[in-house]
Write the structure tokens for this entry.
Amino acid sequence: MLALKCTFDLHADVIPHLLELRENTNQGTVETATFPHERKAQIVNVEGNGCILYTWKGAYGSTYVGIYDPSSRQNKILYSFEKEVSIISCSVNRANTLLAVSILQKTDHLKDHFRPVSKCLTLLIEIHPVNNTKVLKAVDKHVRVQFLYPEYENKCILESHLLLISEDRYIEQLHISLTIEEGYRVVLQNLDCIPKDKVAEDFSWVQWDAQTQMLHLLFLKDNWILKCYQFYPDRNFDVMFQVPLDLPVKPISKGRLVNFGHGYCEENETAATLNLRVFTSGTERSMCVCYSHPTVPNKEEAYTVAFIHRGCSKTFTVSSEIMNSPRPSQVFFVNLDYYIAVCSPGHFIHFINTKQTDYPCHNLYFSGQDSEICSLSSKSIIVSTPDATLIDVQMGKIWKASLSHSALLEFLHRSKFDSHKLGALHCAVVYLAREENLDVEIINWLTEKWTSNTNFNLYQEFILASLYRKIRSDSFSLDKILPYTSVSVWEEEIPGVKCSSDLLPQPTFLDRTRNLKGFWEEFRYNVEVLNYFDAAPNLRYNNSLIREEWNNLLAEMSSEESKSSSHLRHFLENTKKVLSILDTWRLDTRVVPLFQEEDNQQRVLIGLIVDKLRDHLNRHFSRLGKKKIDMLALNYVAELLALIKQILETVWVKYELDSQALCLKHQGNSAEWAVFHIMCQILEAGKDLCLPFPPGFHSLHAVLGVRCLPIHTFLLYIDHGVLQLTETFVTLLMKDLDNTQKNEQLKFSVMSRLSETMSQKLYHLWDHPITSAFIAQNYVKTLFANHGSKECSFINEDYSNFHLGFLPLAYLAQKLSAMENMAVNPFEEQENVDAKFVEEFALKNTSIELGFEKK
């Protein structure tokens, strides 16, 4: 599952270059002896710009330092020692003009002399063009060196900053000034007096992060304290924050140095008891502290991930049954931004979700063959750096780690447990789905698994996870209040793995007045609002809470006052903005034949969700500003509609449907049947979450229902709310189907199920006695409405031409005749009205109202 891409190989990228130099240069520049395999090159450091420093020893007792630039794939010799030396650490500045190196001196040949000799010698060397050398340290403890790589706007700044990190728990920073002589010679300035600052002392553990230019240090006082130091180009450095940690390790006798070179004593470093890493993510605005617990033979393996940005930690214990013999020689951590991978190749790989820490089902756990990492040797000593890079010091290789797309999709197809399906689905959607093709593969998997017996709705998880991925790119803080899963409770555990949770003390920012930017601004905000979110646990937006208001709006839309309702007009204005963002409903670009229709119910629901989401964001994230929040709310709903449309398009293409699927005269085939049921699944998922659908979804669904279902089943689907009748569908039904007995029965059944408002618009389309009856009703109603203000005297009317046995009917008939003489028939454009029929129909309805006969 963990894919490794080799980005550097000493044997492929460096040694051929050294052999070429041997053949093309004179002796004295590079030795002419054949490069002996037993004296192979070794990686010693990876700088902040990605350049790799390496050393090799010549056959005649010399030692060389070289640099490899991965962008240009070029090698360059930086410096050569005339004798063989053991290089502990080395670093080069950004301009490749200064080299700092710590070497371990051999003192055996000086044992008879009385003068003391330091074991470690730290040198600062000019490497272009003059080889001036200055001794920075001469001590018995190992000293590591590291040039800072700040992002200068002006790349010609003649100043370099160097960190000296000693195992005797002391760190200092040197400020080295340079000058240009003769127009091109860059040399040291004030060689005898280099300014220096104390950074920290009495620490137990320190880690360097070359990408972010951060130092993470552990101090032991009453308890373990983690501090973070940030180095800047325009000032020295800042201590950003501190947080107490409960580490299961004893005090360390000497300072543990992490990521300060990867050469001498790296094997001893890796074997140390404190296997701890701090990972930050600039894209996720997160920080995690990962450490493994001291191992006990034949006992379980335990490791902890402390989510500083979430205020909690998770400790996982892997049972000894899973830990096959022999036990792993090491457990290492890999920072994959959205996930932390805990790796014990051949035993287990655990991908821990750093953003969604509530349920273990959002993690991925693999054991056995799924945990194999083919590129790594079982004897390799693996060094993990904070930027998802793995370094095999012995093999001389560097890999870039990532989660394998193909392996995850394969696992998704063969997964049987709910936790596997949910974790793999969220990983594929949120973490891996950067390209549309991968989304298509996931949708195809969904359509194959729509009958899957799971404790959660696959479509709901896909929709919510996709929306979460797309909207969080606009603001990372939204992951706290927007839904990302439909799962509310999850009690299942990973087989063979126990998990316990603890709360973390809130980090303390040491300077609250500082104006932070970028990562630190968002990180500090995430930390400071932890108490606010803990105090109000129901902060996530729940779209289903608007269901009652939505039902009230549906009732209001069917009333006469709906046209004058100001808030309905407000919702429709929101919808116009959403659809203008989409701009995807043009006929010439559509794959799915969604109809060009109003579908007012869906339009009002779209506008309602925009309004409620905007209110929710304003309530909890007012700091984003009104304009930003308005766009977030509109984009969220627009992304939802686009996502449902994408699912429909993928399914439509998969089953090779075309415009013939809209013809109501023929029965549907198996492909249309499959698409119809997939649309039912999408509809069910959306209704449970009270989500809107693109205008035209219900019409297309009803058309496929007519083609695929028997009439009685089709009507049952309508009665149970699975199918929704729309004006577009009813119009198509009346125009496409002829007046056979079967079709008349279908039309009558559909007409009898229409709402009063829709009936008034659509009954005239059907040439049938029931339609004429409805027209007559409307005719009389309209006449009385138009003349209701005029007073009519019953006494003065002449009833000689009417039957006097039933005075209400006589009065009605005479009033109709008088009104027809006074005004133009308002229904002339629709149908001609049979006056005799109106009279008969009025008599029948009056008799029913008086109880003389039954309906």
